[in-house]
Amino acid sequence: MTAMLLSVRDLSLALRGDGAHTLVEHVSFDVPERGVLGIVGESGCGKSVTALSILRLGEPVIAPTSGSIAFNGEDLLTASPRRMQQVRGGEISMIFQEPMTSLNPVLTVGFQIGEALRVHQRLGRRAARAAAIELLSIVGIPLPASRIDVYPHQMSGGMCQRVMIALALACRPKLLIADEPTTALDVTVQAQIIDLLRRLQGQFGMAVIIITHDLALVSDFAETIVVMYAGRVVEQGPAAALFARPLHPYTERLLDSIPPVDRDVDRLATIPGTVPPPWAMPPGCRFMDRCGFATDRCRDVDPVLRTLGDARLAACHHPRHVRDHATVG
Amino acid sequence: MADAVAGAPAEQSRLSRRAGMLLRDRGASVSVVLIVLLVTMAALAPWIAPFDPTAQDVSVALQAPDWTHLLGTDDYGRDILSRIIYGTRPALEVGLLSVALAACVGTPFGLLAGYVGGWLDNAISGVVDVLLSFPMLLLAILVVTLAGSGIGTVIVAIGVAQIPIFVRLARGSALVIRELDYVAASRSFGARGFRILRRHILPNAFGPLVVMLTLGIASAIREEAGLSFLGLGVQPPAPSWGNLIRDGVANILDAPWLALFPGLLLTISVLAFNLIGDAVRDILDPRDIVGRAGPRVPK
Q1: Does residue B206 register a pLDDT over 50?
Q2: What is the pTM of this model?
Q3: Domain covering B15-50+68-288 assigned CATH 1.10.3720.10 in the classification
Q4: B190: nearest CB among A89, A96, A105
Q5: Is the peptide bond prior to B256 cis by the omega test (within 30 degrees of 0)?
Q6: B contact test, residue of A82, A95, A96, A106 with most B CBs within 10 A
Q7: Most exposed: A69, A243, B15, B82, by fewest CB within 10 Å?
Q8: Contacts with A142 from chain B: Cβ below 8 Å
Q9: pLDDT single digits (tens) B108-147
């Protein structure tokens, strides 16, 4: 087994204060060097909080209560604040959902990219500017030499996200965390940004964690998929197998809710209900109320994440497609 | 997409574009002219004042405005026009320096309180709340009483009295800005607290602070006149608008021009700085300068 670049083990996160509200429970996943991991799930299931906690950006409001986050063998949860500053942007970078508001409106984009370079690589003003122009051209911004003096509000959302990606790449990180990088963008631009990320992932040889609620978007980019629901991992496995034969009913319903392109439908498939809030979690399976296959056992016994076939995990008493899986596997 | 405005060669034209916006606002452009006049008057006082402002000539005491003494004379026969011209000096000195003092002290404390929060915020805000519970003039009188009158004390007194406003304003902005996405993004790229304060919080809090600066100048000029009126500011025989008005009040029925002209100039100056403040607020937002368009891209 190859060494993992990032290894999250048994991570639980809670809102600090009353301590009762656990946001994320016992989450574990691995990202190999140059690997691409997709974390999917609907709003409020703990995807973004998990991602933020890798860089320890949720603190002090959201703090880990158990587990470890090993990056190249180093536990980030116990790293010093000084070390974390080196890691942030230097070794792990992050891009966010809202590119338009993630850039400072009163500084030019070139200045902001240059600043990252000056912080981490101690480049001079002129060298930083040259490097910033190069980065802008790498992320596919036309006329980078003149765009560099533009303010964020003068750019479109897609362009801003490209600038954010340039910023994230400034110090050649080993891991890029993209937190819903395309949610705020037009559909056509979404595809461009994903293609860009794919190209850069190869070019820079970095690992990527892409967080999204749009399974279709990551279907041919991510190698491994982690499906989260209500603060837990409910299914995990290689992307191709997971898409072909989802084990957890939640994954299945998520896949069903992708609009088909080959036929007309009157109504798009949805999943009824909402994610239970952290303060009102049911004792049994958390997806029970929205699941079509729930039994009494689901109400009483909390299903644990268990191995079901090669490299596949699911937390369900009645996993789907298990028999097909067994015969194939 | 490149139809609206060319944005790239912005560096030198940005300033002139803002200046242009300022002058397009009628109230603001009148104010600019007035302020330039005031500053010129203060700077060139020895050359443009027709008489020595403290020279007494009892033979011409309490004369109504005529061609020799354009604004008349006071009960010692001193030329009112000359005294008003020299009175611009303490007014502007106090206006600019006291506000500069208040902004330089108040802004960092306010930004720190808002950004760091916790006990530091409680401590700073507590002090500010106590200071704010006193009327500004009363606070200034307190400082002058403790330290003695004179222009230096007046500057410190009014400056100290204005510190709480800048602390409050900067704190409020910092509280808002520290929660914005680009601050989180900047932290995710490894920026430290001080750098975030300097690069992200301060520049984005600048708009309201600059507006407060100009409004603060207006109220500092008014405060100085108030203190001098009460005899706590600029000491006679040196002229200041405040003590000119006070001297005039004694003779308001016989010689109304004594109080009228300094009062008029005081009102106009305060108004000018206030109008400028309003106009500056509209201009400082960089989002208003160029529409949502990139630099002109040749196809």
Answers
A1: yes
A2: 0.79
A3: yes
A4: A89
A5: no
A6: A106
A7: B15
A8: 297
A9: 999 999 999 889 999 999 999 998 888 888 888 888 888 8
